[in-house]
Amino acid sequence: MNYLGKLRLGVNIDHVATVRNARGSAWPDPLRAALLAEAAGADGITAHLREDRRHIRDSDIVALKAGLGIPLNFECAATEEMQAIVLNARPHAVCLVPEKRAERTTEGGLDVAGDENRLAHFVAPLRDAGARVSMFIGHDPRQIEASARIGAAVVELHTGHYSDLHAEGLAEEAEAELHALQKGAALAHSLGLEVHAGHGLTYDNVAPIAAIPEVMELNIGHFLIGEAIFLGLEEAIVEMRHRMDLARGLI
Ligand code: PXP
Questions:
Q1: Which of 15, 22, 197, 220 is in Cβ range 3.0-4.6 Å of 225 for a Cys bridge?
Q2: pLDDT in tens, 21-57
Q3: What is the CATH number of domain 8-98+106-247?
Q4: Percent composition of the chain: helix, strand, coil (DSSP 3-state, to 5)
Q5: Which residues are catalytic?
Q6: Residues 49, 58: contact at Cβ < 8 Å?
Q7: CA 56, CA 67: separation in Å to the nearest integer?
Q8: For residue range 169-199, what is the model confidence (pLDDT) as tens digits?
Q9: Among 74, 75, 94, 107, which residue has the most ligand 1 atoms within 8 Å of its CB, making it the best to mutate?
C-alpha cells in the first residue's frame, strides 16, 4: 500500500568532488552537478563533509547552500567541529553518520543505542536551529528505538549490505536483508520517524527498496555519478526516478 505516495530522490554529489580532487583543480564543479540534478528532477542534494575533506570541502557547502533551489541534506559525523559548521550553514537537513578514516565509504550504521546520551545532546541544538535531523542506521530495532528517543525526526536505513548481497547474486540472503529493512521501516514509521534509505543503490537493486511503503526518500550517489559518465547526469537521474516511480506503482 503506497500510503505515503511519491518517493523523494536525494542525489549525493560527493563523487563529483572526488574526481575534482583527484587533480587538485576546480573541476568538475559539485555545484554545477547539483544544479543539473535539480533540473533533472532531484528533490534534494546530499553532500558529506568528511573530517578528512577527501571529497566535499567547506567551500562546497557554502556554495551549495547559496546556489541551490532544493533542500541541502548535509551529512556529517557527530563531532563538535561538524556541529559548529551545521549551525553556521543552516542546511535543511542533517544526516549523522559514523565515520572511520580508513574506510572507503560509510560502512555501517551509527550506534545510536550505544551513544544515546551524547547524541541526544548533540541533536538538540541542530533541531532548535531548524534542521531535520536524520540518523543513518541499520535495521536493528534497538537503533531505531534509540533514534526516536533522542529526538531525531528521520532515520535513514543503510541499504549497503542489501546492495552487496544483491551484487554477489546471493538472492536468498538479499531477500532476508530486504525483509529486515521492511520490518525496520515499519517500526520506525510506527514510532513517528520519517524513513529514508540509501547506500549502494543502483538501477538493478532499487525497486524493492523503493517499494517499501514507509520509505519517503532515497539518497543515491556513487552509481548515479558513475552512470553519468556514460549517459550524462540528467539522463542517469531521470532513469533512476523512472524506476523509483515504477516500483512505487505511480506509472
Ligand atoms: N546515504 C548516506 C547516509 C551515505 O553516507 C551515502 C554515501 O555517502 C549514501 C546515502 C549514498 O550512497 P551511494 O553513494 O552508495 O549511493
A1: 15
A2: 999 899 999 999 999 999 999 999 999 999 999 999 9
A3: 3.20.20.70
A4: 50, 15, 35
A5: 48, 75, 199
A6: yes
A7: 15
A8: 999 999 999 999 999 999 999 999 999 999 9
A9: 75
Q: For 155-165, write each residue's pLDDT tens digit.
A: 999 999 999 99
- Can you tell me which atom of ligand 1 is nearest the CA of 75? 3
Residue type (1 letter), 106: T
Domain boundaries, given as residue ranges, for the chain: 8-98+106-247
Query: Which grid cell is 214?
Result: 514507509
Is 225 strand, coil or helix? Answer: helix
Residue nearest to atom 1 of ligand 1 (CA): 198
Whole-number Å distance between alpha carbons of 26 and 42: 24
Query: Would you say the CB of residue 147 lies under 6 angstroms from ligand 1?
Result: no
pLDDT tens by residue, 207-238:
999 999 999 999 999 999 999 999 999 999 99
